[in-house]
Amino acid sequence: MVPDATLSWTPRHETDVGLTLARVGRGPSDPTFQRTRDGSAWRTTLMPTGAATMRLSRLSPDELRCQAWGPGASEAVATAPQLLGSGDDPTGFEPSHPVLVDAHRRHSGLRIPRTGRVVEALVPAILEQKVITLQAMRSWRELVHRFGSPAPGPTPTPMRVVPAAETWRRISSWEWHRAGVDPQRSRTIVTAMRVADSLERCAELTPTEAQQRLQSIPGIGVWTAAEVAQRAFGDADALSVGDYHLSSYIGHALFGQDFDDAAMVVAMEPWRGHRYRVVRLLEAAGVAGKPRRGARMALVDHRWH
């Protein structure tokens, strides 16, 4: 199918499409995000002008391209350079630590993406609160399949577009329960969707102001706000304080010792402004953290409560 809109551009920094977008999707079965063998990334989004499917690819060694289908296609392609990190400014980032120096050298095409779509980042972040990742991914997948809409265009596999805020708000308690989402998380999503327009405008604020507005919603704390900022705002400094594994991972990956959140924040101070970039580089390089010996978080199936 001929795209409804196309944009090609030369990025100002080296850009690895797959690596840059690796954390935009929520697992390999995310119905809103898919990767194909040719290196392209497919993403669906709900723009103010309507739904859109985006195909992001490398057109040549020095040129990137976005093709889009659907009523929101023109608006979607206009956001594509930001989505692939055109606004990401690595100025001032000094890896300094030998592990980071190596990771930065091997993954110099890593950019921090900016989707500009707050609700699309917020709902799955809330679903990931206090449960294991696989459980949250399953809930996200089931809810988007059930309440989202078919993706426009020639998608590589059947894909879906996220529900609108009003649809999220009207999901019944039984449907949340059926998707394995407990009342606390579903209540937080419904509460946030009542002020979705205000939350979408967070993308126009400074990082500090945006996170403050997000945290004004009951049930949204520092961790959730950071997870949104990393994706929707392209915030290279958004550190997920309160994450179940992150402090221990940073402690062992860089310093060979156990860290709690407070110790992690102190240790990451030399990279302030780029702390999320540090996390992504370590992940991209496959740097190992603490060997797992203790108990893992248990899967709690809320569908049977």
Main attributes of the structure:
single chain; 305 residues; alpha+beta; TATA-Binding Protein; Endonuclease III, domain 1; 5-stranded antiparallel sheet; two-stranded antiparallel sheet; 12% strand; globular; DNA-3-methyladenine glycosylase 2 family protein; DNA-7-methylguanine glycosylase activity; DNA repair
What's this entry about, in short?
This protein is α+β, with helices and mostly antiparallel strands and 305 residues long. The chain is built from 14 helices and seven strands. It has a five-stranded antiparallel beta sheet with strand order 1-5-4-3-2, with helices on one face. A two-stranded antiparallel sheet has the order 6-7.
Description of the structure:
Among the domains are: 5-95, TATA-Binding Protein, CATH 3.30.310; 118-220, Endonuclease III, domain 1 (Orthogonal Bundle), CATH 1.10.340. Strands 1-5-4-3-2 form a 5-stranded antiparallel sheet, with helices on one face. A two-stranded antiparallel ribbon has the order 6-7. The chain is built from 14 helices and 7 strands. It has helices spanning 17-20, 73-83, 98-106, 118-127, 133-147, 165-170, 173-178, 183-193, 196-200, 207-215, 222-233, 246-255, 261-267, 275-284; strands at residues 5-9, 33-35, 41-47, 50-60, 63-69, 149-150, 160-161. A hairpin with a 5-residue loop joins strand 2 and strand 3 (41-47). 41% of the residues lie in helices and 12% in strands. Helix 3 crosses helix 14, helix 4 runs antiparallel to helix 11 (222-233) and helix 10 (207-215) packs across helix 11 (222-233). The chain has 305 residues and is an alpha+beta fold. It is globular, with a radius of gyration of 19 Å.
